[in-house]
């Protein structure tokens, strides 16, 4: 159901099948994407019109990844071609039309730029280390390499001009750091004031 905060009115929008479902708003707020793990359904907020944007085969590593904030109402999905060992990221629209965004080394995380292309990626290299890289034309330039711990080098965001990257990183505790890509200099933006806990999640305000 959709709740109107101002009036308190509740309106039935869509019936979800199954017990698992995650809801994600499109960038423009006009569309709701429902991820059940088996499929991704787009639901128009205006009238509840629903369409299947994607179906997922878990054996092929197919899954919803994130809302595409470079487009008004699109989502990003991933898959791994077991036969060709190719990893792909694709953009899907509410009706299910697909556009290839990336194909290559398997990624554990990525960030899409304003040009609708992958701007930063994180992957595991042959030695097990987490590597964060920036797109430079048709190539990828490594910016940082961290220990094999899953949380290290987690991409938290970037400046609008792409000149500064925000990551969660640290030796004993995860802190929020900013990297000036041109100089490589780091500065700490935030940590647990009690010097006890890790920073686990960051939500950046859209610029």
Quick rundown:
The chain has no helices and 18 strands.
Radius of gyration: 19 Å
Relative strand content: over 45%
Q: Report how far the terminal alpha carbons are from each other.
A: 30 Å
Question: Quick one: overall form?
Answer: globular
H/E element sequence: EEEEEEEEEEEEEEEEEE
User: Helix amount, in percent?
Assistant: under 10%
Number of helices: 0
Low-confidence stretches: 194-200
**Largest β-sheet summary:** 4 strands, antiparallel
In round numbers, the mean pLDDT is 83
* Class derived from helix and strand content: mainly beta
**Widest beta sheet: strand line-up:** 3-4-5-6
> Would you count the extended β strands for me?
18
Plain-language structure description:
With 207 residues, the chain is an all-beta fold. It contains no helices and 18 strands. A four-stranded antiparallel beta sheet has the order 3-4-5-6, with no helix packed on it. It is globular. Residues 194-200 have low confidence and may be disordered.
Key attributes of the depicted protein:
207 residues, mainly beta, 4-stranded antiparallel sheet
């Amino acid at each position: 159901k959709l709740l109107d905060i101002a009036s308190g009115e509740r309106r039935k929008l869509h019936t979800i099948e199954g017990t698992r479902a995650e809801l994600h708003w499109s960038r423009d707020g006009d569309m709701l994407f429902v991820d059940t793990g088996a499929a991704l359904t787009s639901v128009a907020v205006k009238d509840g019109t629903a369409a299947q944007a994607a179906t997922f085969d878990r054996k092929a590593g197919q899954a919803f990844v994130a809302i595409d904030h470079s487009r008004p109402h699109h989502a990003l999905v991933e898959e791994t071609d077991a036969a060709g060992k190719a990893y792909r990221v694709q953009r899907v629209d509410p009706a299910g039309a697909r556009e290839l965004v990336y194909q290559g080394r398997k990624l554990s995380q990525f960030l899409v730029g304003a040009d609708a292309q992958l701007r930063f990626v994180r992957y595991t290299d042959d030695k097990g280390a987490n590597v964060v890289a920036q797109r430079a034309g048709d190539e990828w330039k490594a910016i940082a390499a961290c220990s094999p711990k899953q949380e290290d080098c987690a991409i938290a965001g970037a400046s609008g001009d792409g000149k500064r990257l925000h990551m969660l990183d640290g030796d004993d505790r995860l802190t929020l750091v900013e990297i000036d890509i041109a100089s490589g200099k780091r500065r700490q933006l935030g940590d647990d004031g009690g010097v006890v806990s890790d920073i686990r999640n960051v939500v950046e305000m859209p610029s």
